Amino acid sequence: MKHTQVVVVGADPVGLVTALGLAKAGLDVLVVDTGREASACAPCVHDWSVLPGLDRLGVLEDATQAGFTDPSWCLRVLQTGEHLTFDLGVLAGLTPHPYNLHVEDTALCEVLERHLARHRTKPIERNARLVDLAQDQSGVEIVLETGDGVRRLRTDWVVAADGTSSMVRRLLGLGFRGSTWHDRSVVALVDADFAGRDYAGTTLQVDDRYGAVVHKVDDRRWRYTFDESLTLPEESVGARIPGVLRKVLGSVPFHVLDWHSSRMHQRTSDQYRAGRVLLVGDSAHVANRMIGHSPITAFFDAYRLIEALSAVAGGYADERVLDKYSEGRKRVFLDHALPASAGRKHLISQISDRRQLETELEHYRLASADPEALRELLLFNRELEGDSPLPRGTSSVSVFS
Ligand SMILES: Cc1cc2nc3c(=O)[nH]c(=O)nc-3n(C[C@H](O)[C@H](O)[C@H](O)COP(=O)(O)OP(=O)(O)OC[C@H]3O[C@@H](n4cnc5c(N)ncnc54)[C@H](O)[C@@H]3O)c2cc1C
């Protein structure tokens, strides 16, 4: 049976970021993935707050070249006709990267994979599904189903970055408590001139019927995310999308290139550590998809886990820091990410009462007119970073310590 120090299950950006950080700390890492085809509808905007982490991993420059940066976002309020604009440039001096990074998932994964290959790692196994695991005091035995049959591996640690339906979490018997929204999330990839209709690179469109989040993918393509009731038939989602777009684009021609729909949950795993297995990203927690607090929190999970696991594996800290990782990240999710995501979804698509809308908008009107108020609004995302799991003064080999 082959042995490796860390197996990361899941090769989406969060799994790859974790693998790269651990590899940079000198750990021997193997990434396995089912080889699921990447969706063109996957998130393409990475919040300014996670960019310093990508920089420390040494991938920000390449990731930026694979996409573009954009400091603008706006709030379009259909009921009032308002168009509140915001410029992340107000964060200059507080962060070296006062903008969002727009890069498609596949392009970001390619960059991360290229950097990972420069380290003492095994090549990513793309057609390997984890189907079982068992652990003892000294390690974890995992079972992979591959194109060539079933294979067993022994590893010191497992990182589960295997998404909402995480097989690892289920094998560990961890609960995934919370609730499921009565809405369906729909993402449409659209070829249309949204810029000509004054949409910014990131636009929150506020309306109780046509609320949406719109992201620029490139000069031609835009990602349009909206919710609809689960009572509407799933088989006709695609047929309804043009009607939704027509309402906001009017006579502007458009072409729907692709779309994706999914149920939405707000759930957290009971814990993010079970012995030698650590959970990151959607395997640990999910919020609604209307606004991206889940992806931001997922990147910060990865950064914090890199710190903790590199320190433990390198002998700089004892295993208690992994419990601190688990407790700290769950707190961040429950105290910050979850309420913020629910609040944004409420603002974007759930307020029909005009007076309530006016109250909710006050905050944003102020922020669009006052740089100090805008800074305060934006800096919330740093709360999602949470505290380091390492005791102060711990030396470590991690890029995050
Ligand atoms: C099409 C699409 C649209 C999305 N839209 C939004 C959005 O608008 N807003 C938002 O907040 N979030 C959205 N998300 C979710 C967002 O991408 C995630 O929150 C974020 O990327 C963190 O994901 P993750 O890496 O933890 O899990 P995932 O991105 O789900 O990655 C899990 C990986 O694990 C692999 N895997 C799963 N099971 C196994 C197994 N048993 N063995 C080996 N490998 C396995 C999968 O192949 C996959 O590559 C979207 C996701 C998709 C796919």
SSE topology:
Layout: E1 2-9, H1 13-24, E2 29-32, E3 45-46, H2 51-56, H3 60-66, E4 68-70, E5 72-77, E6 82-87, E7 100-102, H4 105-116, E8 128-135, E9 140-146, E10 149-160, H5 167-172, E11 176-192, E12 202-206, E13 212-216, E14 221-229, H6 237-249, E15 254-269, E16 273-274, E17 277-279, E18 285-286, H7 293-313, H8 320-349, H9 354-369, H10 371-379
Helix pairs in contact: 1-4, 1-7, 7-8, 9-10
Flavin-adenine dinucleotide binds at residues 9-12, 14-15, 32-34, 36, 39, 41-43, 129-130, 161-163, 167, 187, 225, 260, 281-283, 289, 292, 294-295, 298.
Describe this structure in words.
A hairpin with a 5-residue loop joins strand 12 (202-206) and strand 13. The model has no long low-confidence stretch (mean pLDDT 94). It is built from ten helices and 18 strands. The strands form three sheets. Strands 6-5-12-13-14-11-15-18 form an eight-stranded mixed beta sheet, covered by helices on one side. Strands 1, 2, 8, 9, 10, 16 and 17 form a seven-stranded mixed beta sheet that branches. A three-stranded antiparallel beta sheet has the order 3-7-4. The protein has a domain at 2-71 and 100-178 and 266-350: FAD/NAD(P)-binding domain (3-Layer(bba) Sandwich). Helix 1 (13-24) packs parallel to helix 7 (293-313) and helix 7 (293-313) runs antiparallel to helix 8. It is of the alpha+beta class. Residues 9-12, 14-15, 32-34, 36, 39, 41-43, 129-130, 161-163, 167, 187, 225, 260, 281-283, 289, 292, 294-295, 298 line the site of flavin-adenine dinucleotide. Residues 4-332 form the FAD-binding domain. InterPro entries: FAD-bd (IPR002938), FAD/NAD-bd_sf (IPR036188), PheA/TfdB_FAD_monoxygenase (IPR050631).
